[in-house]
Amino acid sequence: MVFQSEDLASLVAEYLDPTSIVALGRTSRGVRAALRAAIRGVPSLLVRAACNADALTKTQLMGWFALTSLEADALPRSQYARVRGSGFYFLYRAAAFHKALSHVLLSAEEWEARLRARVATCPSSPGGWVGHKRSRAWQLPPGRVIRCR
Length: 149
What we know:
Layout: H1 6-13, H2 18-25, H3 29-41, H4 44-52, E1 56-57, H5 58-65, H6 69-73, E2 78-81, E3 88-92, H7 94-105, H8 108-121, H9 136-139
Antiparallel strand pairs: 1-3, 2-3
Helix pairs in contact: 1-3, 2-3, 4-7
């Protein structure tokens, strides 16, 4: 109940990373509403929370800032080779977070609109905070498992 205050949510969110803010927002609708109101009042909280994580993967960045894949590709990033298997992954840091807020989103209202649109297209995403594709095994009814070789 204490975290349902917008002022307190703003103070707490300043020191949390995106994963922790998402977890906190899942505790109740009131807390989620207070967090969104805090971000609406101070959109730089999005950047501050991302900076608290130091670096985000492309999927994490797209989930936190509600970006499309093409928008994420346009931001500054570092490319690293995967340790296992082939391919590579991208890490985004502070420069990308600031640019995402100032050049792509432009406002907290647009961020919220994108989150609402994501919930409308992906109802399995709780609260619209993070959305990602799951493997086919996760889409099956309980008790049905696919074995991969």
